[in-house]
Amino acid sequence: MKLMRPLIRLLICVGLLAGTLSAAPASAAVTPKAEKKYIAYKITRGDRLSVGIVGEPELNVGGKRVEATGTINLLYIQSLTVVGLTIAEAQDAIANAYREGRFLRNPQVSVTVDEYSPRSVNISGKVNSPGKSEIPADREMTIKDLIFKVNGFTETARGTAVKVTRTMPDGSTKVFTLDVDSAIKGKDKSTSGDAAFVLEPDDIIYVPEKII
After folding, report:
1. What is the pTM of this model?
2. Residue 53 lies in domain
3. Biggest distance spanned by C-alpha atoms of the chain
């Protein structure tokens, strides 16, 4: 009997250990990597679009160019702004225009891009590789991405006051002043989020010189 007691204790300990391992938290398991987020393409100036409307063949058009004003002209619908819209948003905008104009009651619109216009921005001033830079069609480009792409600021750059000039859909211009330097240097400032500013085609970026 004396020999059996240590053996029983050993079996109990083994059982408790097995129960503990089986109850280990699920968080210990290897989690799969997060999938890369897909960025929907946004229509830009110079794109050529095909527009189709179910059951209305006379309204179907192909190779319709997006004008410099960011608009397209369709039968019965003039100067409809589509620049900056995703394909789904452009379809809704066209459907709403025909519906609100009382041309069609419930139009089913399809839009496809026949030809993509080059998507680019221009950067000048105190950067190491100034000039035109292409924006990929399948993802966004932030101002921070662009600065890295042009090999960074020069030593005399004022990276806390980067100017971005943008032509708005109505033809007006808007200037944004961004602090990119703080984010690049890891400084925790209220303006550090400026580096995440998303660029749009035809933006003009200027990096000024430091004020001495």
Report:
1. 0.61
2. 48-115
3. 101
